Amino acid sequence: MQTNRGATSLKSKQRTGNPMREFDRLPKELRLWLATAILPWRPASVRRAFARAMAQSNDPDLALDALNRLQAKLIEKDAKRVWGPDHPLASNDASRR
């Protein structure tokens, strides 16, 4: 079955609860990041990843940079599997942008 996520090899999970309520409960900086994210992140996933990054750096800007790097890494991984190693986003440089 075709979904609105398109072709991807990344795992998906069933939603539990109300995703809009979860989104509304995120801090402003995470809502802004999530609104411009390339991948279809769940609010709970973003909250966990941000908390891990904050535990390491204790700096919101560095934690957001860590989210960007994580997203780039996931895109690179998916691009290699879906479109092959010659896809522009599948290069090792994609995770450093």
Please, could you describe this protein's structure?
The chain contains four helices and no strands. By secondary structure, the protein is an all-alpha fold.
Average pLDDT rating: 83
In total, how many domains does the architecture comprise? 1
Largest sheet: none
Element-by-element helix/strand order? HHHH
Distance between the termini: 33 Å
The chain-level structural class is mainly alpha
Residue share in β-strands: under 5%
Per DSSP E runs of 2 or more residues, the count of β-strands stands at 0
Task: Supply Rg.
Answer: 14 Å
Number of helices: 4
Q: Runs with pLDDT <50, length 5+? A: none
- What's the overall geometry? globular
* Assembly annotation: single chain
What percentage of residues falls in helices of 4 or more residues? 55-70%
Summarize the SSE layout with pairings.
Blueprint: H1 19-25, H2 28-35, H3 43-57, H4 60-83
Helix pairs in contact: 3-4
Please supply descriptive tags for the structure shown above.
single chain, 97 residues, mainly alpha, 4 helices
Q: Would you summarize the structure shown here?
A:
The chain has 97 residues and is mainly α. It is 56% helix and 0% strand.
